[in-house]
Design goal:
This protein is an alpha/beta fold and about 150 residues long. It contains five helices and five strands, in the order E-H-H-E-H-E-H-E-E-H. Strands 2-1-3-4-5 form a five-stranded parallel β-sheet, with helices on both faces. Helix 4 links the parallel strand 3 and strand 4. Bound molecules: 1,3,4-trihydroxy-5-OXO-cyclohexanecarboxylic acid. The site of 1,3,4-trihydroxy-5-OXO-cyclohexanecarboxylic acid has 10 residues, from loops.
Length: about 150
């Protein structure tokens, strides 16, 4: 089975309660269930995690280096601030898709810059929970092309 790590950053544990007008009513648990169903159809096995701590995200990315063939990451606000996450994704060299539920380009200017985009294979934002499904589809296609899935 091809393993993919899906990593979620700060405040995403509050999905469903947090600014529903921006992020919708789905919880992270329901997004995880959606990802599991999607991954099954694509022949992927997923490890799904959330942490509010930047260094833990770095550790999860390092762990993925040994255990996974690719990464899907919604780094939340760390997207816009974290050189450490940029470096970690670059260091492990796994094909990585950056995802966001909201269309960050429609929002405040400080969300328009991403430290992850320059080291990601692709970026998907603005589709709500479906952003994750689209990321999995895109990653599956990339891995297939590379002969890794
Ligand atoms: C987010 C967008 C970020 O700007 C924000 O800080 C988040 C969530 C999204 O999924 O839309 O926490 O990554």
């Amino acid at each position: 089975m091809t393993v993919i790590y899906i990593l979620n950053g700060p405040n995403l544990n509050l999905l469903g309660q947090r600014e529903p007008e921006v992020y919708g009513h789905d919880t992270l648990a329901s997004i995880e269930a959606m990802c599991r169903a999607k991954a099954k159809g694509l022949g992927l096995d997923i490890v799904f995690r959330q942490t509010n701590i930047e260094g833990e995200l770095v550790n999860h990315i390092h762990e993925a280096r040994e255990k996974a063939k690719g990464l899907v990451i919604n780094a939340g606000a760390y997207t816009h601030t974290s050189v450490a996450l940029h470096d970690a994704v670059k260091a492990v060299g796994l094909p990585t898709i950056e995802v966001h539920l909201s269309n960050v380009y429609k929002r405040e200017a400080f969300r328009h810059h991403s430290y992850l985009s320059p080291v990601a294979e692709g970026v998907i934002c603005g589709f709500g929970p479906q952003s994750y499904e689209l990321a999995l589809e895109g990653l599956a296609a990339i891995l297939k092309k590379k002969g890794k899935a």
